[in-house]
Design goal:
eight-stranded mixed β-sheet; binds iron/sulfur cluster; single chain; 3 domains; binds flavin-adenine dinucleotide; three-stranded antiparallel β-sheet; Aspartate Aminotransferase, domain 2; Alpha-Beta Plaits; alpha+beta
């Protein structure tokens, strides 16, 4: 068993880092250490965490200063929002949503810039951030990889590229963008940061277990995995794994054991259930997301092949958006229209009842069995759940009554606190 001492956050006499439940693994502290005294190591659940080498540490405090969890940002109050999609259907079909990551990246590449994004590095298919300098290299970045990526040394690469006067686009989860901004410490006109609305990130160890099961089932390790394939449609996406003998395996989101565990929030990083990076707090210039609910807002932009929500938070974001306007169809919308179908922008997922069970068993049982174990409830658990839901309903109805009877006063009684995510 790992001792508490192994977590950088709890090492005695060493600089303070984020609490272990809040640490997002953004790697800003790792990148900022001038003595390379921090290593990012997998914890017992498979998530990377900073571990300080006490002998190398000179107590300069640089790691504490850049940690975004110790100095959270403020929400972006009035982003300019669009429903949008690339005019290039082939591009959309290979992207998760409307293909806008690629549209934005192309404008940066044509200026001789660098684009940072996530790929599944071969042969082990490990999710890592890398830099792309060509259109061809963008292809591997397309599509959501539903596992936490390791930024490795990319924060330092960004700093060096900006110092050299190059334009840079960095894409990632809001906590990674928050970490990058804290690491850089100052604004740079050449930097464009693009975050995703983030449901949460699954454990790399669970992803490894999934890949091992696929390898055992097919007699060889998968050579690629695409989690947001649109063969059926954008809404009914499927996970496709391919193999050296060119065979492929496809399962949609309702049947694939890995995607089902991800969507049920069973294998997310602990910090995801307490996430403080969303709502534009990361300082990102642009937020990209699936525009769930587009059929109600703008049916003309919905062909079930992928439509994005785009939130522009800064002038740099608005300029970058204008630069790719020719390749994009878009309609202005309100933030409320975006969040009506995508609550993940506003609130983190709740930690489900079965998470502990899933994370305790995914190594010992087949993933499908671990999923069953985590979602199966004993009569006692069902009773507790019913009691909890009844209490929630009662509180909600009392709140509603107070809101309707006391009008404007209610916001003082109940300051904008997000409602719990339905379990
Ligand atoms: C873990 C995860 C959770 C998400 N949760 C939601 C959600 O709840 N609601 C929602 O509307 N959208 C969510 N998204 C975003 C959505 O799936 C699309 O990525 C987004 O709409 C951009 O689509 P696109 O077609 O423009 O780009 P695509 O071509 O699909 O580009 C993918 C982009 O995502 C980045 N990326 C891929 N995998 C990762 C990763 N593991 N970590 C960090 N960056 C990654 C790539 O670098 C690239 O920038 C999530 C994405 C990820 C990776
Ligand atoms: S205090 Fe300085 S030397 Fe020590 S781990 Fe943090 S950044 Fe590195
Ligand atoms: S900087 Fe990032 S990785 Fe380091 S302690 Fe803070 S949240 Fe964790
Ligand atoms: S939910 Fe929050 S903490 Fe988790 S990966 Fe996404 S941005 Fe980071």
């Amino acid at each position: 068993m790992k001792s508490k001492k192994q977590d950088g956050q709890t090492q005695k006499g060493l600089p303070r880092l984020a609490d272990r439940r809040d640490c997002t693994g953004c790697s800003a502290c790792f990148a900022a250490c001038p003595r390379n005294a921090i290593a990012m190591k997998a914890d017992v659940e498979g998530f990377l965490r900073p571990v300080i080498n006490a002998a190398q540490c000179v107590r300069c405090g640089a790691c504490s200063r850049v940690c975004p969890v110790l100095a959270p940002g403020t929400p972006s109050l009035a982003p300019t929002c669009f429903a949008a999609r690339s005019k290039d259907l082939d591009l959309r079909l290979t992207s998760s949503s409307g293909g806008l990551f690629t549209e934005l990246s192309r404008t940066v590449l044509t200026e001789g810039g660098l684009v940072f994004g996530v790929v599944l590095e071969k042969p082990a298919l490990t999710a890592i951030h890398v830099a792309a300098e060509t259109e061809e290299a963008l292809a591997a970045m397309r599509g959501s990889k539903y596992v936490q990526s390791d930024p490795r040394h990319t924060f330092r690469q960004v700093r060096d590229a900006l110092r050299a006067g190059r334009r840079v686009l960095y894409s990632g989860t809001p906590c990674q963008i928050a970490g990058l901004h804290r690491f850089l410490g100052k604004a740079d006109a050449n930097l464009l940061t693009v975050e995703l609305i983030c449901h949460g990130v699954p454990s790399p160890a669970v992803f490894d277990a999934f890949k091992a099961e696929l390898a055992a089932e097919h007699g060889s390790a998968p050579t690629s995995i695409a989690a947001r394939n649109k063969f059926y449609s954008w809404r009914r996406f499927s996970l496709v794994s391919t193999y050296a003998d060119t065979s492929e395996n496809r399962e949609d989101l309702y049947t694939n054991r890995y995607i089902r565990a991800f969507l049920a929030d069973l294998c997310l990083r602990p910090s995801c259930y307490r996430c403080r990076a969303r709502e534009g707090r990361s300082g990102a210039d642009i937020t990209l997301a699936d525009f769930w609910g587009i059929e109600k807002v703008c049916p003309a932009l919905d062909d079930d092949r992928g439509t994005s929500a785009v939130l522009l938070h800064t002038e740099a974001g608005r300029r970058a958006w204008a630069a790719c306007a020719d390749g994009v169809e878009s309609v202005p919308v309100t933030l409320e229209q975006v969040t009506a179908g995508n609550g993940a922008y506003l609130r983190p997922p709740s930690e489900p009842f079965g998470r502990k069970r899933y994370m305790a068993h995914f190594r010992d049982y087949p993933l499908a069995a671990a999923l069953d174990l985590a979602t199966h409830r004993t009569w006692y658990e069902r009773l507790v759940r019913h009691g909890r839901n009844a209490a929630r309903r009662l509180i909600a109805s009392c709140r509603k009554r107070l809101t309707t009877t006391r009008g404007g006063v209610s916001s003082y009684l109940y300051p904008c606190r997000p409602l719990p995510f339905p379990t």
